[in-house]
Every structure is written in structure tokens, then in C-alpha cells.
Amino acid sequence: MANYSIGIDLGTTNCALSFYDLTADGARNWQESTLPIPQLTAPGTVEERPLLPSFLYLPKAEEFPEGSLALPWSKKAADPVGEFARGHGIKVPTRLVSSAKSWLSHAGVDRTSALLPWQAPQEVQRVSPVEASSRYLRHMAEAWDHKFAHGKGKTERAAGEQEIILTVPASFDAAARDLTLEAARQAGLKNVTLLEEPQAALYAWIEATGEGFRKQVESGDIILVVDVGGGTTDLSLIAVTEQDGEAQLTRIAVGDHILLGGDNMDLTLAHHLNQELAAAGKKLDAWQFASLTYGCRQAKEQLFSDSKLKKAPISVPSRGSALVGGTIKTELTREALTGILTDGFMPRTAVTEAPQTARHTGLTQMALPYAQDPGITRHLAAFLTRQARALEASSDAPIPMEGKTFVHPTAILFNGGVFKAAALKERVVEVLNDWLQADGGQPVTELQGADLDLAVARGAAYYGWVRQGHGVRIRGGTARSYYVGVESPMPAVPGFEPPIKALCVAPFGMEEGTQADVPPQEFGLVVGEPTRFRFFASSVRRDDPVGRMVEDVTHNEELEELAPIETTLPADGQAAGSLVPVNLQAAVTEIGTLEVRCLEKSGAGRWKLELNVRMKGEE
Amino acid sequence: MAFRLLFDGAFARQVAAGLGALEPKAAAPAAPKPLPPPERVHASALLLLSGLQREGRLMDFLQQDIAGFSDEEVGAAARVVHGGCAKAMGQYFAFDPVTKETEGAAMTVPAGFDAQRIRLTGNVAGQPPFRGTLKHHGWVAREIRLPAVSEALDPRVVAPAEVELS
What is the ipTM of this complex? Predict the structure, then answer.
């Protein structure tokens, strides 16, 4: 039995770890619940930091003095992760692995193959996005063990023995969730449960607010969680209902995967200033550009925290030792900040204005599919509008939607370092309230009190305690329905692909630890040969029962194609090449992953279909 | 006697010889353990410099002759030093003022005050409690979090030379 619940926020740019002593009585002191993570800050220097930057550096053998990459728990030099990896990697970009998490959810590539750093020279031993994620997790697990399970008789306190709650974006699809879990397994973490990040943020708020949270929200409320991390924007809607006098929380919808975050904002500011510098004949190298980006972040925070300032100075240090004279001076004006950042990323738009590319469909592109439209408010509008239509069409929607153009949130919870800038929070609230007013709704209230950087890890650890039967649990089940592709029988016509229908195998809102009904459709599996199904998901088709056929998937905007699922039927006892009739069945495991199985029609045979990690036609 | 040692070289040599005579002339059974070299004894000081250089380019700034530069250029560099060194200092230490009184305000120094924490200036005379004006609030470290340094490295290297391969 685990003594601790360990919450791990495996972020695109930063990781954090929080813990909850499950054996202690009463609530924990949540402010002191995060583990400072020792990491290399320079060769030979190990320092504790509240966050572990999600960067991995793959050094050349003779690059650093022997023993200088050792960690307190390992004399053997491992590839550095964290602050030093990030800081040095800026100067050696071809050996730096970054944004592994974004690659983990990128269905356009084989996510288990060694492809990072993306532009590494031949001699670099590349790693897969799964491996990189696993290195960050292993580092945190070892930091935990070093602190809590160091020495004799303490092995039961090791991270591998504890209850691990690992967070993923709500928008992660089934395969990305599986891969996150695989990374945890590789890191030696055995008891892992996945939790959606916006839910973790809400749990952190609930813990920080204590019993008072019941006074701040009431039945009928809809909480919108806007989580803008370093690399992703993650949206969720959570409804507050009442049953037998008890407050119930149900996550009713999650947004699409939007690769757009705080890093993009700082980069945009830096590019703007870099253009000005270039026009003045000042050229920055990659390291200086990184310094400029960092300077922009500081200047941004300075301007946002003091509304009287008209501008903030930025100094970009020289590479050489002649600092005085070699330092390049520039400044960020409030005008540029508001124009580029506030108006660029949080534009005042109508709720009807859709993002330029609403959903990423470029499944064949190899580089990361960054969001085409930087307007977070437009993505938010699209999300609320689409979900309103989905809820309206649903027979058992948890909230009434009649007469509303979009879902009307009553409360908003912000998460992510971006929102340290109060002006950005205010802008989102302002835009949302404009929409609400025009649509006959009431203004939203902001839920305050959670730490923007550490809330996800803290909320995750708290969820481990909630799972033991304490406090309020957020329900909701899967935020998507899942389908397999079925070819319509028709005579072969050269040049025409037969239309594909989608058969629903997993309905919307499946709870953890449940399995779906078995659809009546039969499939023939060829013994000894790999069988593969095209796989689809929808975040808006809330009412499809198992067995429902959706016509013509290629022209259906409600469905999104995922990487295929496949299995090979072992030839034991049966002649290879013979056809075995099967039914498909989906289940959601206790730990929060989706499984699709083949059930033998006339026997007890069961085979798990693997969620593939790359799209059809990529091999 | 201290003054005589300082000013009277001949006497000092006599004393030194006398001190030497007091030491046992017999061969020492074990050679005295050699003191570690100064960079090991003071490794944390070098490490601090290294950190201030890494984050805030302090070495570069102090080693440069700035006489020929304009205030504007010095100012631009000072922002790098200030921003980076403040961040590094914040990671290594936490400081408090010695006293919470406001500078420029009247202050009473009681009898038995801590002479390390409070320095009297001006007309230092009379009996406590002393009445005066706070000129500087002082600084005292509340937390010290200097990292451990790897034994594998030579602490004298405050910053490595950087060679960029093309």
C-alpha cells in the first residue's frame, strides 16, 4: 500500500512534483507540498529548483570534464536534464531535446522512434519522444528516492512503490495517453493513474479554497478552465450539479489539442524586437536571441505588473567578455506589448469568429503542427460554440443549452504561467463577458487562489487523496466517443476509394474501469496476419451508442482521425490464413487509458488492439 | 608586546627563534597533514563568483576598464549584471535588513546592543540607551543555499573559454 500520492506535472517546458502523505490524518500543508528538484545548473554544480525544465541535452563524450555531470544519486554521468540542459542547449541546438510532449501527441510521426533532436547530426544518439519524457520522469523519481527512500529499510518509500498521478492535457488522444504511460513505465513508475491537467488545476483550487469552495460555486454553475502552458492551450468545461444535497462536479467537455502557449508569446515579442535591431544593423546570434527572448519575458512581466510604466528596457549581453560596449540595448514599449501580445493572442473578437484553421488536419506534416491562429480567444469561441451545439443535440446534456449561441460559463479558472500577467486574465474575462452580454448571459466570476506554476502537480497529488474516498471527485469519463473505420462494400472503381463509415465502439463519457457494450457488427480476422483498423474520435458526438454507424467519415467535420489500431491474431491451434469472426469491444481502464479488444465470436479468444503510434501511410 | 613585534624587527626575530626552540626538535612521527590548496578551502567563494558570472556576467563587468565608455553603455551592461546577479543571489541567499526601522528615522540603541549588528557613528559618547538616526539598515543573511561543488572540478575555473564550432 502506497504511503504517498505523488502528483507529477509533465509539462512541455517545465515539470513539477507534489506529494500527499496518505497515511497522515487531516489535510496537508499544501504550500509546502512540492519537491524541490536537484538538477545540474552548470557542470559540477547541482542545485535545487522548484521546477525541472523539460529539456534533455545529449552531450558529446569529451564535451565536459569527467564526473562533472554526476548527480547526488548517481556518480555515473547521465545526459543532463533540466536547467543546465536548457541553458547550454541554447548554444548547441542540434543536441538539445525540447518540446518532447508536443511530439508525444503528434500523430504524424512514429512517436516511439528515435527522432529527437529533430535536426541532430548523424553521430548523435537520438531519442524518441517517449524516451525523452521517461528521462524527465526518471530524474524526478530519483530525486524523490534520494530524498525519501535513501538508505536501508526505506525501499517501500521509493517512488516506484507510491501512487503516481501523472497529468496529461485534456486534449491528449488515446494514443498520446498510452505513450505517456509507457514513458512512466520505462522510468520505473508502476502505479500510475492519468489525470487531465485542467481537472488537476481545479483540484488544486478546491484544496486551496478548502470547504469554502461550496460557497463559491453552486449547482448550475459551469466552470471554464483556461490552461495556457508553455506549449499548449487546454480548455475544459466542468459543470456543478447537486445530488442528495451534495455538490457534484462533472467535466462535460474538453477542447482540441492546440499547440500554442506562453513560449510562443515570448518568442513573438523577441522576433519583433529582433527585427528592429536588425534594421539598425545589429545582428544577434542564437544565444543572444535566446537572451532577448528571456529579456522579453522579464520586460513583459514588468510592464504587466506596473501599469504606469510606458516601456521596459532590455539588455542583450555580448557573447564575449567585453560586456560594456558589447551589450545591445533595446526596449519593449507598452504599445508593442499590447499590440503584439494582448491584441495578437487575446484579440477582442466576436464569438462567431472562428480560428483561421479550426482543427489541425495536416496529419502528414512532419514538423510539429503548431496552431495556425495565435488568437486564443478565437479558439475559445470555437470551443464554446461547438460544444453548445453538441450539448444542444444531446438528449441527456447535464446543462440546458436552449437559446444560447455558445456555452455560458459562470466561473473561470486560469492556469499556467502566462496568466501571471493580470492584464491577460482581464482580457479573457472582458472578451468572454462581452460575448455573454450580447447573448443574454451573466458575467463570469474568476476563481482565485491557485499557484499558476505548481497547481497542476499539487492538484494531481491531491487527486490521489481524493481517490481514497475523500473530498469531491470530478466525474465525466472520456471526453470523446471512439470509432473504427468500416469500408462500405461496393464494386471497385479505379481511382475511387470506397467510402468509409465509422462504427462507434466507445460512447462519450465512459467512466474509468468500465467496458462498453459489444456492437453487433462482425469482423473477420485473418490468423497470423496483422489486422488494422482506421480509428476516429469525436469530442462533440455525445449521444452515439455503441454500434452506431456514421456515414462518410472523410467529409464529416465532427470526426477526427487518429493513428490506426492493430493486432495480429496468433496462429495457435488454427491454420494460418483462416478467417476468425470477431466483435470489437472498448474499455476504459482504471488508470484512464482506452483499450479496444477483439472478442472471438465462437470461443473465448480475446486480443487487445494496439493503439498505433503513427498514421496510415507514414511508413 | 604586539607593537614591539611589529616595529622592532630584531626583537621579532628573537621571539620567532624562541618560539622555534619551544617546538620539539625530535623527528615528527607523522608528517603534518598538508593544508588543502586555497581553491579547495575557499571553493564556495569561487563557486559564488562562477554563479554570478554565469547568471550576471559579474566577472566580465568588474574586469573590464570602463573609463572610456559612456554612462549609457555602462548602464546597459549594468542591467545585465543587476538582473542576472540579483537572480543568482536570490537562489543562493535570502537577506533581511538588520533592523526594520526606516532609514532617516530616529532610533534608540539600548544598553547591551549587539555591536556586530549595530555600528555607532557620529558623536559616540555618553551612556545607553543611545538616541540617534538610522543611516543604513544593514543586511543579514537569513538563508544560505550555496550548492555543493563537485570534487571532480578545479574551482579556480570561474568561467570556461567558449569555442563555437561551425
Answer: 0.77
